[in-house]
Amino acid sequence: MNLDWASMASASLRVLVAGLLFGAGLPALFATGVRLWSDGSGEVADDGTVTRPRNAVRMAAAYVLFAVVVIIIALAVLWITRKSLDHYFGWQPFGEAK
């Protein structure tokens, strides 16, 4: 029995990269969005005076990051359920299922 070490190393590296991307990358994007939202929302004192004005650029960047995270999660759910979607509904969101 011959073991193909190069193929196993390549597959392990792909799993490692995917794990880092989805396991740490998406939460990091979300955390960055929360930070941008917090910094961009401004501050109001107890008496109602604005101590720091709202920053529209940071708020827009936060919304973009939130949208990216939601889109990636939706695509991942569709990818995981692609065969069930094809079986039950005849819908192939990523083309012909193999």
Overview of the structural elements:
With 98 residues, this protein is mainly alpha-helical. It is 70% helix and 5% strand. The protein contains three helices and two strands, in the order H-E-E-H-H. It has helices at residues 5-40, 56-80, 82-89; strands spanning 43-44, 50-52. A two-stranded antiparallel ribbon has the order 1-2. A hairpin with a 5-residue loop joins strand 1 and strand 2. Helix 1 (5-40) runs antiparallel to helix 2 (56-80). The longest helix has 36 residues, at 5-40. It is elongated, with a radius of gyration of 21 Å.
Poorly predicted runs of 5 or more residues: none
Secondary-structure element pattern, one letter each: HEEHH
Instruction: Tell me the distance between the termini.
Output: 29 Å
Give me the number of helical elements. Answer: 3
Largest sheet: 2 strands, antiparallel
**C-alpha Rg (nearest Å):** 21 Å
Please supply descriptive tags for the structure shown above.
5% strand, 98 residues, elongated, 70% helix, two-stranded antiparallel sheet
SSE map:
Blueprint: H1 5-40, E1 43-44, E2 50-52, H2 56-80, H3 82-89
Antiparallel strand pairs: 1-2
